[in-house]
User: Which sequence fits this backbone?
């Protein structure tokens, strides 16, 4: 495998009409534009602040964008290999358009990311979410992740004040 995702990735037999390709800087505006609508919970527009342009400049080669036959955004995964812990890969954001859900699209995005990170020598993949994002917790459990935390918040393990006062996070970790 080359060191970078190729610009256009292989089609997926389960999603033959969708195009998978490496993320590019020009994708930034439309990806942040869908975070509020796709996350579907009040206040989630502010999550867009967690995805600045730098991810599309400096983590593009390990991030994927999926488009439908009309060129509309159908899904994306923003991930990278840890610079400080090279054996660790990290999924920063994943999103699938509501009408494309439960078809295995996020599973494909994750499995491809796992494969690419394994090929680079990673042994573990991590991610986080908020205690309120039950859908993300269910998805990550289905993908074989363990939920981690130092306490229990809203009936799930969570790290208290992980990202600052009141900013509790559920940890996800999975061996590769
Ligand atoms: C979470 C999300 C990415 C899942 O995408 P998806 O394409 O619908 O997921 P998939 O169809 O690939 O499902 C993969 C597995 O997760 C499970 N899963 C997915 N959504 C689920 C849900 N809402 N409830 C329970 N399980 C779910 C599926 O059952 C499947 O398990 P299986 O393969 O063992 O049957 C999507 O719902 C989404 O974009 N949500 C809004 C954004 C978000 O919360 N992102 C994650 C936090 S960063």
Assistant:
């Amino acid at each position: 495998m080359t060191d970078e995702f190729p610009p256009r990735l292989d089609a997926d037999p389960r999603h033959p009409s969708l195009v998978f390709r490496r993320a590019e800087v020009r994708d930034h505006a439309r990806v942040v534009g869908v975070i509020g609508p796709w996350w579907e919970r009040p206040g989630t527009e502010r999550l867009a602040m967690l995805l600045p342009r730098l991810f599309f400049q400096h983590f593009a080669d390990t991030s994927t964008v999926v488009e439908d036959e009309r060129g509309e955004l159908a899904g994306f995964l923003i991930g990278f290999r840890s610079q400080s812990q090279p054996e660790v890969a990290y999924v920063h954001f994943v999103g699938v358009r509501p009408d494309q859900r439960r078809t295995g699209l996020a599973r494909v995005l994750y499995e491809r990311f796992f494969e690419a990170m394994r090929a680079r020598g990673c042994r573990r993949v991590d991610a986080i979410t908020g205690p309120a994002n039950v859908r993300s917790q269910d998805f990550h459990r289905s993908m074989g992740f363990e939920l981690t935390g130092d306490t229990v918040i809203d009936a799930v393990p969570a790290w208290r004040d992980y990202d600052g006062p009141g900013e509790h996070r559920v940890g996800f970790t999975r061996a590769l």
